[in-house]
Write a structure and sequence with these properties.
The complex is a heterodimer of chains A (290) and B (380). Chain A contains five helices and 16 strands. Helix content of chain A is 19%, strand content 36%. Chain B is mainly beta and 380 residues long. The longest helix of chain B has 7 residues.
């Protein structure tokens, strides 16, 4: 099935949130560490995971150390060497075509995101009250790699809360309206406030719509077609009139103290807020209907 | 299948070339009455971003009575029919205004926006409304099933442009015409009539282009212009208002082109709808005031309250979060030169902010005057 307009909107919004935090807030930390073998094979690849979830992989972010290769026993190699297939930047992991000997250490330098940004379809109450997410990394425990399906915070869960088409003008033009909720879990109040400040200040700005061929990663998490991703380069090709969404509303929801205390029982170390975002686009939704 | 109803998605509006009785085709630089042989380009243009439209006509009749009879003998039509067509649209560029007959300045030398109306070069034209089949969109619809409402010999009588915080910039237009022609072919005789005798204009056909979503690519494809991209500059710093610190809430530019119908014996129609002179453009501005400025009304009266320049610029939409910096600059711009202050009112109520309402009036002078009047420039 081909990617439809909604698919592009959701993906573009995720990239935009990522880019806002990384570029405006410098929400990344350059780091170097070992990568640990994971017991999970991903699509036939042997996985060596960092203690963190997501790497920064946007070359438009100044100062971010984006890994292009990896160290085996402190010797730097690039992709295609010694079975190194590439990085899954969203998982913070390196993939190898074969299992490395146990005496080989795998390490790398990378820029870890201060906020992992993921899409979710889970109900709100499960996200807030039932999902136990772990602070990365927990220094009281031995440092190890993050499992493929594990979510660590600080994290922003993006959930699609629905969409509608509203009439805009004669002739069939309609405004497609999308509602998203951002569930923000941070490990400090400072980080939470900073994140909210950046995102709320982006209200009434334009969100570029990325085509499927312009997405940064392939199904393995490597750069699409091996081309390093630069958000600014792609977004500058977009026409403000036809290739963008308008972020008409970004507001912070208010919660009662009881809800906060209930939340603390599940995730005692997390600071939490919700942002509601509305994106709009004037388009011809029935243009391609037969 | 019979049509049950028509909704907004099925209708599109168009404006024809001027004059209304003139040529609606062009081949190279040669105007043609009909597109025969078929190698010309139609001159009817679509009006985009339309929000509402209403049209109709009235027949002013006079009762004929006589002694000995309570009821009237006849209700005679002794005056010209009045065709009214009004619509509003969201502003994204000046393409609609250009198609309505306004002169959009493109070079360094400003040209009065009303020069075409004053010289009659772009004054009267025909308008069209096309309805496609029920349940279909008009835009990109190539189906041959439609109804065309044609409004002939229409002259612009009112133009209003306004914008407010929290809403799109809009324009409203009213035109008055002489004839209505409803047909079911996308090409046909123009709806204009000979004002002298009401006969159809021979050898003048038109064709409506298929409706499109935008006036063109690039800057012409903007959906709308945004309140956050509107700047209003005003060299007014007199009584009580510091315009460097005010927070403009809305503006409204109103242009009433009052018409003087020219009639004559022997003609059932108005021979012409001449503009009543003088023509004034009114600009109303409402703003929340911050810092105030001292001043004396007596001084203003002594020195005159004239000679203000008001410029409203609606900039192209762009993203400034170092991500999407595309076209910059002005999309559309209104400029009133040498306007005079008509009124200044302050208001404040419990729970609100102190506001000021300023009204400026600018006379429209001759088409060759570049120092006074209304000037429009921008994407068209």
């Amino acid at each position: 099935m081909i990617a439809t307009f909604d698919n592009k909107v959701i993906s573009s919004f995720l990239l935009w949130v990522n880019h806002l935090l990384l570029s405006r807030g410098q929400a990344f930390t350059n780091h170097g560490s070992y990568l640990y073998p994971s017991n999970q094979k991903y699509n036939g690849y042997y996985t060596y995971s960092s203690p963190f979830s997501q790497f920064t992989a946007d070359y438009s972010v100044a100062g971010a150390n984006i890994p292009t290769g990896i160290y085996l026993n402190n010797s730097f190699i690039g992709t295609g060497v010694s079975g190194f297939a590439g990085f899954n930047y969203e998982k913070g992991a390196a993939y190898f075509t074969g299992q490395l000997p146990s005496n080989v250490t795998v390490s790398g330098n990378y820029a870890v995101k201060d906020f992992n940004v993921v899409l979710t379809n889970e109900p709100e109450e499960k996200i807030i009250f039932e999902k136990e997410i772990k602070l990365r990394p927990k220094f009281s425990a031995p440092v190890t790699g993050v499992a493929n399906d594990e979510i660590t915070y600080p994290v922003i869960f993006i959930k699609n809360q629905g969409r509608a088409n509203n009439p805009f003008a004669f002739g069939g033009l309609e405004t497609s309206v999308f509602h998203f909720s951002l569930y923000i879990f941070a490990d400090s109040r400072f980080k939470l406030d900073a994140c909210i400040s950046i995102l709320c200040d982006a209200a009434r700005s334009l969100v570029p719509i990325f085509e499927p061929t312009e997405m940064p990663y392939n199904s393995f998490g490597f750069f699409n077609s091996g081309v390093p991703f630069n958000y600014n380069t792609v977004s500058l090709t977009k026409n403000a009139g036809s290739d963008t969404l308008y972020a008409s509303k970004i507001v912070q929801s208010q919660f009662s103290q009881k809800l906060y205390s209930n939340l603390r029982q599940v995730n005692s170390e997390a600071f939490f807020e919700i942002l509601d975002v509305t994106l709009e686009k004037v388009r011809l939704p029935r243009a391609n209907l037969v | 299948m019979p049509r049950i109803r028509t909704n907004f998605a099925a209708e599109a509006l168009y404006a024809g070339p001027a004059p209304a009785t003139g040529y609606h085709w062009i081949s190279g630089s040669t105007l043609m009455g009909t597109n025969t042989p078929t190698y010309g380009t139609g001159l009817v243009k679509q009006l985009h971003r339309v929000q509402d439209a209403s049209y109709g006509f009235s027949l002013p009749k006079k009762d004929l009575l006589q002694f000995g009879q309570a009821g009237y003998i006849e209700r005679a039509l002794i005056d010209s029919p009045q065709v009214n067509f009004q619509f509003s649209y969201i502003q994204a560029n000046f393409t609609n205004e250009k198609n309505l007959g306004f002169t959009i300045t493109s070079g360094a030398t400003p040209v009065s926006a009303l020069s075409g109306f004053l010289t009659k070069a772009t004054d009267d034209r025909n308008y069209f409304a096309k309805d496609t089949s029920e349940g279909t969109d008009n835009i990109n619809n190539t189906s041959p099933n439609y109804v065309i409402y044609g409004f002939g010999n229409c002259a612009l009588s009112s133009y209003t442009a306004n914008a407010a915080v929290g809403d799109f910039p809009k324009a409203s237009v009213q035109v008055q015409g002489l004839n209505v022609l409803v047909q079911s072919t996308v090409t046909g005789d123009i709806p204009a009539v000979n004002p002298t005798d009401g006969t159809a204009i021979l050898n003048r056909t038109f064709a409506l282009p298929f409706a499109t979503g935008s006036a063109g690519p690039g800057p012409l494809s903007y959906s709308t212009l945004l309140p956050g991209d509107i700047n209003l500059s005003l060299d007014f710093n007199d009584i009580g208002v510091d315009t460097t610190d005010w927070k403009i809430q809305n503006y409204s530019l109103t242009l009433n082109l009052n018409r003087d119908p020219i009639k004559k014996l022997g003609s059932k129609y108005e021979v012409s709808k001449e503009l009543q002179i003088p023509i004034n453009v009114q600009m109303s501005i409402n703003a929340i005031i911050g810092d105030t400025k001292t001043g004396n009304l007596a001084d203003v009266i002594k020195c005159g309250a004239d000679g203000y320049n008001v410029k409203v610029s609606l900039n192209k939409p762009q993203c400034t979060n170092n991500v999407l910096t595309l076209d910059s600059g002005v999309a559309i711009q209104y400029e009133l030169k040498n306007a005079s202050l008509e009124s200044e009112n302050f208001g404040l109520n419990v729970g609100g902010n102190k506001t000021v309402d300023l009204v400026f009036v600018c006379p429209v002078t001759g088409p060759q005057d570049a120092q006074n009047g209304l000037f429009m420039s921008g994407i068209n």
